[in-house]
Write the structure tokens for this entry.
Amino acid sequence: MIFDITPLTEYTVFIWRQAMIYFDNSATTLTKPPEVAEAVAYAVNNFGPPGRAFYDAALLAQREIFKTRAQIAKLVGLDDPLGVAFTSSFTESLNLVAGGLVKKGDRVITTAAEHNSVLRPLYLSGCDLSFIDCDDNGNLRLDTLEITPDAKYLFCTHGSNLTGNITDARALYSICKANNITMVLDVSQTLGVEPVDMDMADIFCFSGHKALFGPQGTGGVIVNGKFDFGIVKTGGSGINSFDTMHSADMPDIFEAGTANSHGIYGLQKGVAFINETGVERINAKVTRLCRIFYDGIRDVPRVTIYGDFTTERRLPIVALNIDGLDANGLSLYLWETHRIATRAGTHCAPLMHKRLGTADHGAVRFSFSYFNSDDEIEKGIEAIKNAAALVY
């Protein structure tokens, strides 16, 4: 029977959380540093409208938003915190950046590893789009990159949300700089768990609620330099109200209306936790957990695993199928029988699934966090062995 969570009482949620093993961190991190939730609760009860007044509650909200910019700038090595703008999500960030930069007919390069949050805004723009292909393990094949004199932009993921493979962003950025191409990097999966710095791209789009441990409804854009985005978002800004056009300066260009100061303050605490703990320490733990899981299931009969596990640096993601079991059915079995939360389907990565030959049935994705434990990993291994035994 599917676990019934209605009525959703506080006691029910406590029992549910106690029983659950959460391996869907690439979608959203559920377990976060406790100070994240504490910050959101504090902000709800104490923050006024940021940037709108000079009384204490409004100034408090404005100061904490700036401190969040500063924490993110510290994480990526950006000198000016005002180069960080906040949005509601990675998806909004990419839509705003693509909508501001890309015009119909522009020559744009992207990859077969992209999420629909990258692909669909580019399709919508009417640009002339070409793709970097990938190999059978999902690694980008840079030998398929074709640079033409009219190429303007390259949009690329830093880490695949399906295979866990990491892109050599520095190599791509070097190519882009040599050819006067603006590079936009999707760091929604990597920021917070993998080193990211300003030598990797011109523009970075990020999600707040994944490896940064922030609340849902947070994300942003990091701009490394000056670019002509035009007007991508407009409305109330709290300043220059007699101007007919919204400010084109960072961070105002991507921010209009009252900011989500409650969520941004929670995000600040998530990023502060990462800065204090250290990205390398976080990476070392999740890499170890991922390797234990992979080693525990790679020789299980009927299990097919996707991605390149020969490299030391990769995201803590293992996507798999079991021959004879539907991906959705396997994910449901893991939940109903073992209380293990995973993500089944196509993960909004249609081109990668086509390349891997999984477009018709998808895959089951396990994604691990700094807050997962060795015991949970061992239970996950046992669950896969049990599931594989079902089809003998």
